Amino acid sequence: MMRPSACAALTLVLLAAGCKVGPDYARPDAPTAPAFKELAGWKPSDPRDGIDRGAWWSVFADPDLDRLERQVDISNQTVKQAEAAYREAVALIREARASLFPTLTVAPGVTRSQSSGGGSGFSGTRTQYTAEGAASWEVDVWGQIRRQVESQSAAAQASAADLANAKLSAQGSLATAYFELRGADSLAKLLSDTVEEYKRALAITQNQYDAGTASRGDVLAADVQLQSTTASLVAAGVARAQYEHAIAVLTGNPPADLSLPTALLTNDAPVVPAGVPSALLERRPDIAAAERTMQQQNALIGVAIAAYYPQITLSAAFGFAGSPLSNLFSAADRVWSLGASASETVFQGGYRGAAVDAARATYDQAVASYRQTVLTAFEQVEDDLSDLRVLQQQAQAEDTTVAAARRAVDVTLNEYRAGTVAYTSVITEQTALLSAEQAALNVRQSRLVASVALIQALGGGWDTASLPTP
User: Fold this and answer.
1) Does domain 17-100+141-308+370-466 have CATH number 2.70.70.10?
2) If you average pLDDT over every residue of the chain, what do you get?
3) What is the pLDDT of residues 358-377, one digit of tens each?
4) Residue ranges of E strands in 94-253
5) ∠ at Cα 304 (301, 307), nearest 5°?
6) pLDDT value of residue 410
7) Across 6-10, 29-33, 42-46, 298-302, least confident range
8) Is the N-terminal amide bond of 324 cis, ω within 30° of 0?
9) Quick check: 50 pLDDT over 70?
10) Which of 37, 57, 140, 442 has the fewest Cβ atoms within 10 angstroms?
11) Distance of CA 417 to the CA centre of its chain
């Protein structure tokens, strides 16, 4: 049995010599570029230099969008799931950290026995009372437990980044659905106005027919065009309803509980500055999650390597055993013990080596996943920048086309009234005008959606400073 002073000295020696085996983490390099390719030679028509770190959607200055977005953190079920996963990850840190401390147990007991005497001359019953406490501590000499804590801490940070990414994804999906809904509202307004114009055109052909200067075919052609556009107006309501349903689910509501008033699509498509590509590594939560996963897997290499070394355990017990109960805690009934032990597995058929190789391979997978996540992020930003650049140019061209088509309709309709052209010419120009107006509307909607996508690709208002500390 070891003396208390010897046991204490051994403990200090073990703690002083304690280390953490396995590689210390250093973030690997990731492929980056000095500047975004799609920004070269392009100046956004309406740049926005400021963005709210939380409410990034405020750049659109839309009160309805702001009200809906603020419900995502509260009611979106995907976000709630990610938040629960984060709380689980934090609990696993405490669970791993608990192994750094001794385990204490208490064991009170009572035993009643009977003896028949025999050669001892004693017979009767006897009651034995015990009160014992024990402590056991597996000393983390090689850092196996500390590496496990490090791994769980990195996993919790990755989970926090996943939570931020879930919020950003839901917010981006909501903003996209919102602008698509407003696009459907604007399309309905466009078709409604066009129906009114076609009604007036039908009245003109009817008057021309009544005056004997137009054929019945002109009246029928005008009516067919009117009815076809009316049907398109009805069909536009289908898409709007679906976008409204999607917004309801993203805000955590049943579709029946949400109704949005009709409003037109804004002409404002703000573009936020992309910054330098290297900053993207700190601004995207999915990149942060992939990077934290690398440290998680790196720490597990140390856990696997520590299995090569012996496990050292300190133990102690102290208690009382005696009878009767009133004298249980007397000095004469005291018992105690101190001990230390070490165990080492000498043969496992290559199991530990295979475990280390598997841990290293898993880490290499995490590195490749991290670098691919970075490349995908750059691709998304470049795609969104090119979309906005091209759409800005296309919007200008579409506006010019709409103005020209409008003039063509006015001229052709006047010529029809004068009897110099057939009504088919009017229908052709009206069809071209409606097509141009729809194309212009689609470009406006696409610019807003691309603006949302760019902000989302840049990480919203998030950066790695938002991660909880280990």
Assistant:
1) no
2) 88
3) 999 999 999 999 999 999 99
4) 103-115, 124-139
5) 150
6) 95
7) 6-10
8) yes
9) no
10) 37
11) 61
